[in-house]
Amino acid sequence: MVWSISPLTQVLMLKACFQTIIEVDSINVEPYTVDQIQIFAGQRYSFVLTASQPVDNYWIRAEPNIGSVGFDGGLNSAILRYSGAAEVDPTTSSTVSNAMLETSLRPLTNPGAPGVAEVGAADVNINLDIQFTGQFTVNSVTFTPPSTPALLQIMSGAKTAQDLLPNGSFYVLPPNSVVEVSIPGGSIGSPVSIFLGLCSRILNIFFQASLPSPWCMSLSLCYLYCV
């Protein structure tokens, strides 16, 4: 089963069985069995359901952090019905005994960083200074959705990668280059606005730009474009 959400944060609870997480955001992880998963906007989890409970009806519940919350009247709920169970609403509770801890996730394999795994030694070095003063900015630029979506601009061929709009939100990467992205912590919300929790240090990410395509940093703060 694959579960992905946008743009809210959801807490997913399945009382019908245990959930063994095997993949997170395209990264295979060591099997991790839980009964609750907190999923943030843009994240994706793949997990295996083990239907080992007695034959019955069980709630599948996914509560968002904003909007219509709660489970009254079947809100934010679905039913997982074992074969042979009566067609009635479940009576299971929402108790949790083994909630997922994101810090307990471990990659199944360690491919290592591409190139030279040293700060500043990549072919391309990009620093993303995230700030929040009423709205998020990256390197003093606020992302403003263009009238023509970025992907349509690319597909039209009317503009080069360097000319795509909005200005200041695209970073062009040479093909097959090793890229280091640095995200300083410390400002309000950084780097949580990208994909991590509050951090007071500098986050360094290494990757190789081997796939010609646009890559969007989560929450549409900026685009990385490999030509």
Number of helices: 1
Largest β sheet strand count, sense and barrel closure: 4 strands, antiparallel
Span between termini: 34 Å
Give the SSE string. EEEEEEEEEEEHEEEEE
- Oligomerization state of this entry? single chain
CATH architecture of the largest domain: Sandwich
Please give the order of strands in the largest beta sheet.
1-6-3-4
Helix content: under 10%
The top-level CATH class of the largest domain is Mainly Beta
Give the C-alpha Rg. 21 Å
Walk me through this protein's architecture.
With 227 residues, the chain is mainly beta. The protein has two domains: 2-104, Cupredoxins -  blue copper proteins (Immunoglobulin-like), CATH 2.60.40; 124-226, Immunoglobulin-like. The chain is 3% helix and 37% strand. It contains one helix and 16 strands. The strands form five sheets. A four-stranded antiparallel β-sheet has the order 1-6-3-4, with no helix packed on it. Strands 5-2-7-8 form a four-stranded antiparallel β-sheet, with no helix packed on it. Strand 3 (18-24) and strand 4 (27-34) form a beta hairpin. The protein is elongated, with a radius of gyration of 21 Å.
